[in-house]
Specification:
The complex is a heterodimer of chains A (114) and B (110). By secondary structure, chain A is mostly beta strands. Chain B has 110 residues and is mainly beta. In chain B, 0% of the residues lie in helices and 45% in strands. Chain B is built from no helices and 11 strands. In chain B, strands 2, 5, 6, 9, 10 and 11 form a 6-stranded mixed beta sheet that branches. A 3-stranded antiparallel beta sheet of chain B has the order 3-8-7, with no helix packed on it. In chain B, strands 1-4 form a two-stranded antiparallel sheet. Chain B starts with a strand and ends with a strand. Chains A and B meet through β5 and β10 of A and β6, β9 and β10 of B.
Chain lengths: 114, 110
């Protein structure tokens, strides 16, 4: 079956623009994670959903970042008024269970803010 | 503070040589440790987790709570092992949040 997909794969935004990044997890997966990966670094946790409930958003760097998963499947990460420091690869991962489990990663969205 | 440290950014070995990728962690609870791997032009994928105690593609990793380490080892490296390796940590009972190290690039030379 299909794995985790993300769109767009690449996004260029001018500073100050709003962007929306989409994640389609594997069907039936309960858990969904968003990560930010800066160049040369490992993924940094942003937020976690269990079905439609956002149980942890402690990693969101500012109130310009917002994530939702309204029906417990597709998730969107929105960044308002983008800044240059938001440039990174944004990774989405899903896992079947609502406990520690294998995460399946998407290909990522590379965001470049000019 | 919760933290995962991978001290080597790059590790180069010859084919057939033993490999050890280092991972140290700091966690105030019961940790669960993982190794993820990213091959060239592929997505991040799970290699192994300490709780399953498996050997995957010849790699093993033992959780040493005394030294707070989870080093990844393979006795004989293969060229196809060349990839980026990330050590990751979460809690056994607080699994909402994962912490990743900054990664080690393994280059296996022919």
């Amino acid at each position: 079956g299909a794995g985790v997909s993300q769109s767009p794969r690449y996004k260029v935004a001018k500073r100050g623009q709003d962007v929306a990044l989409r994640c389609d997890p594997i069907s039936g997966h309960v858990s969904l994670f968003w990560y930010q990966q800066a160049l040369g670094q490992g993924p940094e946790f942003l937020t976690y959903f269990q079905n439609e409930a956002q149980l942890d958003k402690s990693g969101l760097p500012s109130d310009r970042f917002f994530a939702e998963r309204p029906e417990g499947s597709v998730s969107t990460l929105k960044i308002q008024r983008t800044q240059q420091e938001d440039s990174a690869v944004y990774l989405c991962a899903s896992s079947l269970l609502a406990r520690t489990d294998t995460q399946y990663f998407g290909p990522g969205t590379r965001l470049t803010v000019l | 503070a919760q933290r995962v440290t991978q001290p080597e950014k790059l590790l180069s070995v010859f084919k057939g040589a033993p490999v050890e990728l280092k991972c140290n962690y700091s966690y105030s609870g019961s940790p669960e440790l993982f190794w993820y791997v990213q091959y060239s032009r592929q997505r991040l994928q799970l290699l192994l987790r300490h709780i399953s105690r498996e050997s995957i593609k010849g790699f093993t990793a033992d959780l040493n709570k005394g030294e707070t380490s989870f080093h990844l080892k393979k006795p004989f490296a293969q060229e196809e092992d060349s990839a980026m390796y990330y050590c990751a940590l979460t809690g056994q009972y607080n699994f909402n949040k994962f912490y990743f190290g900054s990664g080690t690039k393994l280059n296996v030379k022919p």
